[in-house]
Amino acid sequence: MREIVLVNCAYDRSDDSVFTSPRTCERITGGRLARDRGTIYPHVDGVSTEHSCQAVCLRVLRAERRKSVSGETVLITGASRGIGRCLALEFAKHGASTIILWGRDEEKLSSVKKEVEESGKARCHFYRCDVGDREQVYRTIQKVQEDVGAITILVNNAGVVHGGALLETKDDNIEDTFRVNTLSHFWTTKSVLPSMLANGRGHVVGIASTLGLFPLPGVSDYVASKFSVVGFYESLAAELREQGHRDVSVTCMCPGHTTTDMFKDLTTQPFSLTPQQVAEQTIEAVKTNQRRVILPRVMHLTWILNSWLPGSWMRNVLYVTGAMKDMENFCAKR
Ligand SMILES: NC(=O)C1=CN([C@@H]2O[C@H](COP(=O)(O)OP(=O)(O)OC[C@H]3O[C@@H](n4cnc5c(N)ncnc54)[C@H](OP(=O)(O)O)[C@@H]3O)[C@@H](O)[C@H]2O)C=CC1
Ligand SMILES: CC1=C(/C=C/C(C)=C/C=C/C(C)=C/C=O)C(C)(C)CCC1
């Protein structure tokens, strides 16, 4: 691990990154750190200020912190299709030794297992598990640990959307949304965390959504479930840090609209992502220990403006871009 002293930096509290100033870093530190000018260091430890620092030295442990996923045992929920399937293939491509797929459709899981095994050297197993059922999650995790051993990377990806205006949404659907999109993250994480802490090695990843940061109309249960899950990862990251467990990391991914089955009726979205892009960025986030990732990056702006500007701003943008019409169609089909 390399230790660098950075001078004249800005610290971004949202993702723990430090930006070095392009001009003054060189002047103050001399030639030694010239190559660090204008660099962004993600996920920096040991920063005690939240503001721009003028000529303040920060001790930064970095670069060699970048980890590899090679040899890891990765459990992915909701891996039968969409983002989960791409995550399985991508982890295999990046050298994970064992991939464990969870879902409810055994036929589809079996076909993803085949794809993973054909794509490289990873071993792959699949288990039928409804993540919305707490007892099933506990039973299945135990079976996985007996069959395969300790899970070192957990990706909570499974999700559902029912959608529709609140008064037209069935109570059962609201409960299902919370069971799958939110509560399941508690059950799976509680099950794998003890072995991660005991082994001093692990990473818990949650696939949340930009809808966990700002709302859209017509999907209030989905939005609320994602806001909750973003809160879960924020709090868990803080808790592990406070307890001194620096070898177990937490990442919360917040992708915007992605071209899978889930929101396939949102047809005219600008800035849509492919599931492959989300999978690639997730692996990059794991390797660089990022706590929260918002995709595409332009959505940072939406999130900030939504907090600062009146609600009518967002409404107008959604009308002008056609996103509101799309949401209406989406709801009408539910
Ligand atoms: N699509 C989008 O625009 C975005 C999606 N996301 C999030 O990404 C994640 C993946 O979504 P995406 O790939 O698009 O969706 P898909 O609908 O394509 O896939 C959802 C996956 O979740 C699984 N799943 C659903 N319910 C359960 C359950 N009760 N138990 C176990 N598995 C279950 C499905 O498996 P099964 O075969 O069992 O149904 C499927 O594998 C979700 O959490 C979603 O909220 C985030 C941002 C944008
Ligand atoms: C807010 C906003 C937009 C729409 C975002 C949408 C429609 C996001 C959908 C996200 C989904 C479906 C997430 C699922 O989890 C635009 C038009 C890009 C312009 C900038 C402001």
UniProtKB/TrEMBL annotation:
PROSITE patterns on file: ADH_SHORT (PS00061)
One cellular-component annotation, GO: lipid droplet
Protein name, entry field: Short-chain dehydrogenase/reductase 3
Subcellular compartments: Membrane
Molecular function, one GO term: all-trans-retinol dehydrogenase (NADP+) activity
Keyword Repressor: no
Signal sequence interval, chain numbering: none
Protein EC: 1.1.1.300
Keywords from the named record: Lipid metabolism, Membrane, NADP, Oxidoreductase, Transmembrane, Transmembrane helix
Domain Ketoreductase: start-end pairs: 72-281
Protein role: Catalyzes the reduction of all-trans-retinal to all-trans-retinol in the presence of NADPH.
Catalytically driven reaction(s): all-trans-retinol + NADP(+) = all-trans-retinal + NADPH + H(+)
Similarity remark: Belongs to the short-chain dehydrogenases/reductases (SDR) family.
SMART domains membership: PKS_KR
Pfam families according to UniProt: adh_short (PF00106)
CDD domains: 17beta-HSDXI-like_SDR_c
Organism: Branchiostoma lanceolatum (Common lancelet)
Catalytic class of the enzyme: oxidoreductase
UniProt topology in membrane: Multi-pass membrane protein
